[in-house]
């Protein structure tokens, strides 16, 4: 670490604002948190590893901090929960600049503030090489109201929020070597994804969703997770999948990227046919893309009227 | 990873038993946990990094798994809390054997079972080199009864549990190169430290401790943490510090190791003079080693009657 551990932690501690549910944050053996009455706790953990989830030459430090926390907040949104606190374990190489670390925290704490999540603890260590982070987000949800992956029933409609494929399109550009850097503003869903916490809260309050997951591994993979946990199958329509428009010409991304590309952090949910699902929730468009079937497997109706079997393609980040 | 991610997670999931407070464990975007009524949540996170906290040639895989979880459980004990669930983020290199990983989980899950903590989630990834783990332990404590670092008052006695220095003595042997391996049974406090969860629970129930911390960084450093958070000083007596007896001749470790050596995972606590503190709690001896003073700084009365200023010496694990 650029600073000794104690100075490092003090520097972070000074920047953190206390939170409503945080009885005790950084500075003891554990953080102490109070859950709202009648709520259950939600816990999620996510690695962000240099070389696998980001590269220093492609990703500004504040984007790395933002994306690190966004992964956790998106998991809380996927259960329709409320974020309370985050815990960051951070291992950095000795030569890393204090400026990089400060900017990393700036990105992380800015997003935390927007969602009223308090950085309440973590761990720091020196890594032999590369930046390794593990983010834990603790949230809460009124008891019994979390939306699980396992609630989809045959006949339910399938919906996605926002547009898909922008994050994968950005990575494709970078991996191809055609561009050395991308403008983070032009590909903001890759560099600064917005977890759909507010949208998910409204889905919970209106009791719309029967099952939900966030699209971190790609639509095909995450729909397969819902089908597996719910013991059902699905049919989706290729033409209905909302493809992100990227670059200076706002061209729609290829279907492959929208179908298999990960890290968009949109939500995929199912709802019974009888539920009225608004066209927009919390300012984000909602698109119906298919239906849950009793018969297992995922099939896709293509533009030319044929039916294809769709296999989940694991999203392997930068490791492709 | 030796197995694809999905198979890897399924293999872990099959070995985990459901827990009383775990509504939903591995298999969704978040785990869902129910806290006992009137309890607050405790959260702690700890890195365990190959080369810094362990070496594969010195530490059997089940010891690495055990120590990884012991670090988190010990933090819960330090707040006088009850463990509920653990979350493991694990990054392993591609060539690591499935046998090593299975043995790692055996050590971790054995300790989890003993303390009724359920492995309820986590993350897995491939690391470029070396094993990186981050353990999160979630616990609970009746609201307002957690024992903080900040509760020590001038006049309080200072106590430690068990004996100190065995873990550092083991590392000293290994680092010196005099021995290539140690018998884990002969140095069990290093290879299989027992977090003092039950002892801490009794301290809470009897309302004995005014402040508490676990000795993970070494007595001198951890006492300094208590003094800092409580805005007090301390005086300890060198002859009173309970030194571990190690090796075949059961020789007491050097005072330096007992004073500055970390990773014993004993507890350091303070108690008002009026409190009766038993000589043993939960089968573990309790030793009075000094007193909290109004005057800042830590001083030590030596065996020959002199007073020395004691500086906290950061415990740097294997990186020394």
What's the CATH class label of the largest domain in chain A?
A: Alpha Beta
CATH level-3 fold name of the largest domain in chain A: Phosphoribosyl-aminoimidazole Synthetase, Chain A, domain 2
The secondary-structure element order of chain A is HEEEHEHEEEHHHEHEEEHEEEEE
Described by its quaternary structure, the protein is homodimer
Estimated helix fraction of chain A: 25-40%
Biggest protein-protein contact in the assembly: A-B, 61 and 61 residues
Shape of chain A: globular
Strand content of chain A: 25-35%
CATH-defined architecture of the largest domain in chain A? Alpha-Beta Complex
- The name of the CATH superfamily of the largest domain in chain A reads PurM-like C-terminal domain
Q: What is the CA-CA span between the terminal residues of chain A? A: 30 Å
Q: Mean pLDDT across all residues of chain A, rounded? A: 93
Total strands of chain A: the figure is 16
Number of structural domains of chain A = 2
Explain this structure to me?
- The structure is a homodimer of 320-residue chains.
- In chain A, 28% of the residues lie in helices and 28% in strands.
- With 320 residues, chain A is α+β, with helices and mostly antiparallel strands.
- Chain A folds into two domains: 5-142, PurM-like, N-terminal domain (60s Ribosomal Protein L30, Chain: A, 2-Layer Sandwich); 149-314, PurM-like C-terminal domain (Phosphoribosyl-aminoimidazole Synthetase, Chain A, domain 2), CATH 3.90.650.10.
- In chain A, the strands form four sheets. In chain A, strands 7, 8, 9, 12, 13, 14, 15 and 16 form an eight-stranded mixed sheet that branches. Chain A has a four-stranded mixed sheet with strand order 3-6-4-5.
- In chain A, strand 13 (280-281) and strand 14 form a beta hairpin.
- In chain A, helix 2 runs parallel beside helix 3 (98-114) and helix 2 (61-78) runs parallel beside helix 6 (197-205).
- The radius of gyration of chain A is 20 Å and the shape is globular.
- At the A-B interface, strand 2, strand 3, helix 2, strand 4 and strand 5 of A face strand 2, strand 3, helix 2, strand 4 and strand 5 of B.
């Amino acid at each position: 670490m650029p600073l000794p551990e104690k100075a490092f932690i003090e520097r972070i501690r000074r920047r953190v604002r206390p939170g409503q549910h945080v009885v005790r944050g950084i500075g003891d053996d554990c953080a102490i948190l109070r859950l709202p009455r009648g709520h259950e706790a939600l816990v999620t953990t996510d690695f962000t590893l240099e070389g696998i989830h980001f590269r220093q030459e492609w990703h500004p430090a504040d984007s790395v901090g933002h994306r690190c926390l966004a992964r956790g907040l998106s998991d809380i949104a996927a259960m329709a929960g409320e974020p309370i606190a985050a815990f960051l374990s951070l291992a950095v190489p000795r030569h890393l600049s204090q400026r990089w670390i400060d900017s990393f925290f700036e990105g992380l704490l800015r997003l935390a503030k927007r969602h009223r999540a308090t950085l309440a603890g973590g761990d720091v260590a020196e890594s032999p090489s590369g930046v390794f982070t593990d983010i834990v987000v603790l949230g809460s949800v009124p008891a019994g109201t979390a939306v699980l992956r396992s609630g989809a029933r045959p006949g339910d409609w399938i919906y996605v929020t926002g547009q898909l494929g922008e994050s994968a399109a950005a990575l494709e550009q970078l991996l191809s070597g055609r561009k050395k850097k991308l403008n983070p503003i032009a590909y903001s869903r890759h560099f600064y994804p917005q977890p759909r916490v507010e949208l998910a809260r409204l889905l919970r309050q209106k009791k719309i969703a029967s099952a939900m997951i966030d699209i971190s591994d790609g639509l095909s993979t995450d729909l397969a997770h819902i089908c597996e946990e719910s013991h059902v199958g699905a049919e989706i329509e290729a033409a209905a999948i909302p493809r992100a428009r990227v670059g200076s010409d706002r061209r729609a991304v290829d279907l492959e990227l929208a179908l298999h590309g990960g890290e968009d952090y949109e939500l995929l949910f199912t709802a019974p046919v009888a539920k009225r699902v608004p066209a927009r929730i919390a300012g984000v468009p909602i698109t119906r893309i298919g239906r849950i079937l009793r018969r297992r497997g995922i099939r896709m109706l293509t533009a030319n009227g044929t039916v294809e079997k769709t296999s989940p393609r694991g999203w392997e980040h930068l490791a492709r």
